[in-house]
What we know:
By secondary structure, the chain is mainly α. Helices cover 87% and strands 0% of the residues. The N and C termini lie far apart (68 Å). The chain crosses the membrane at residues 6-24.
Amino acid sequence: MSPLMIPIIGMMIPIIAILAKVYMRSMEMKERQLTAMGENTAEKAAQYASRVAELEQRVRVLERIATDGGIQTAAQIEALRDSPVSFSAEREKVR
């Protein structure tokens, strides 16, 4: 080994350590970003599932009203008008 290689290797060790540290920090940052994105996606999926369940219930009611006879239909429509459920408030919760 030449006498010039010893200082070169001595300088390479800290440079490699610094580069390894930078790489590890970037990997940690990417992991945190993926975790945050996963949590956000799970929250959105739960909101969409809730909204879908609400819409399915409304469709069932409308199907029942559409397939039932005259007097029952009128009574059900009036019952829906008197219903205290505010779908606009529920919609704001989802957003």
